[in-house]
Design goal:
This protein is of the alpha+beta class and 344 residues long. It is built from 14 helices and 8 strands. Strands 1, 2, 3, 4, 5, 6, 7 and 8 form an 8-stranded mixed β-sheet that branches. Helix 1 crosses helix 11, helix 2 crosses helix 3 and helix 2 runs antiparallel to helix 8. The model has no long low-confidence stretch (mean pLDDT 91). Its cofactor is [4Fe-4S] cluster. Adenine glycosylase active on G-A mispairs. MutY also corrects error-prone DNA synthesis past GO lesions which are due to the oxidatively damaged form of guanine: 7,8-dihydro-8-oxoguanine (8-oxo-dGTP).
Length: 344
């Protein structure tokens, strides 16, 4: 009854999303990678941009990495964008442009884990395998009132086995979509709308008033504190930026001259940089500190604009006009600052 009830509810209440109107594994894979760590509302325009620019996996594979990262900028977790590009190349090179058609082989692709493989396998090929994302975990742990920590591998396996039994003899794609949609729109982390839930009568957590206590995580993410001091060197309308190395945060993307330090007192760092590169300074302008919060890191970021009397050679970077900056792949924090620069 669980599966039939939520599928019936889903078919009447589902949101109209473009990747739900196709069984093309390329479009489904594209949507799943974009929506990892990203809300649907934020991810939708990115999905549309990628589909518009790369209509096939061959087109995505043929693009250069900078072009892919430029379209990705603002989504964060940039390794996803790089893996997206690399996986497209693998699919073209090793699979002749056709995605593997089963759960087991899909997991061999870079950036495709257990959940993403299950989603593609069920949505594109109707393979009966449960796609357990955060929404599905929440629905199932509340329905069965599971107080064990969901970050435990043994608990995750138990929930996977339970879900496998629940989806027998029903349409796999609709079942997985239904469970995730219920978690995204009704069985939400905070203030769930239990009265409108199609399975509330059978839900153990609803019956025992324990909904707000579930799910439970045993481990807490350790969050580190970082201080980033950006020096925005400018000379006659041109700005200095460099391409980051491929083993750094924001790999292969462009940003301004960066100094990581124990605080954001720019005077000492600027003095060292000026001396190192023999920069002649015309004027200095500071901007308010920006707080940037990631899952594993709190960043305090300061921008200091330094007008230079000449276009000095500063490390392994180049000077660009404000218009040329649009063509460079940049982290969102840099994109936002440049937008402010353009506004004056």
């Amino acid at each position: 009854m669980f599966a039939k009830k939520i599928i019936s509810w889903y078919l009447k209440n589902k949101r109209d999303l473009p990747w739900r109107n196709t069984d093309n594994p390329y479009y489904i894979w594209l949507s799943e990678i974009i929506l990892q760590q990203t809300r649907v509302q934020q991810g939708l325009p990115y999905y549309e941009k990628f589909v518009e620019n790369f209509k096939t996996v061959e087109a995505l594979a043929a693009a250069n990495e900078g072009e892919v990262l430029r379209l990705w900028q603002g989504l964060g977790y940039y390794s996803r964008g790089r893996n997206l590009h690399k996986t497209a190349q693998v699919v073209v090179r090793e699979y002749g442009g056709r995605f593997p058609d089963n759960f087991k082989d899909l997991q061999k692709l870079k950036g495709v884990g257990r959940y993403t493989a299950a989603a593609i396998a069920s949505f594109a090929f109707n393979e009966s395998v449960p796609a357990i994302d955060g929404n599905a975990l929440r629905v199932l742990t509340r329905f069965f009132e599971i107080f064990d920590p969901i970050d435990s591998p043994s608990v995750q396996k138990n929930i996977f086995d339970i879900a496998t039994d629940l989806m027998k003899n029903v349409d796999a794609g609709n079942y997985n979509q239904a469970v995730m949609e219920l978690g995204a729109t009704v069985c939400t982390p905070k203030n769930p709308n239990c009265e409108e839930c199609p399975i509330n009568i059978e839900c153990k957590a609803f019956e025992n008033k324990s909904v707000s206590q579930i799910p439970i995580k045993a481990k807490k993410t350790k969050v580190s504190q970082k201080f980033f001091q950006y020096f925005v060197f400018e000379h006659k309308g041109r700005y200095w930026l460099k391409k980051r190395a491929d083993n750094e945060i924001w790999a292969n993307m462009y940003d301004f001259y960066l100094v990581e330090s124990e605080n954001l007192d720019y005077h000492e760092n600027l003095e060292k940089t000026i001396e190192e590169f023999n920069i002649e300074v015309e004027s200095v302008k500071t901007y308010p500190v920006v707080n940037h919060i990631l899952t594993h890191q709190k960043q305090q970021i300061a921008f200091t604009e330094v007008k230079c009397k000449s276009a000095s050679t500063i490390g392994n970077g180049n000077w660009y006009t404000i218009e040329e900056l649009d063509d460079l792949a940049k982290p969102k924090i840099i994109v936002d600052f440049i937008q402010n620069l353009k506004k004056g």
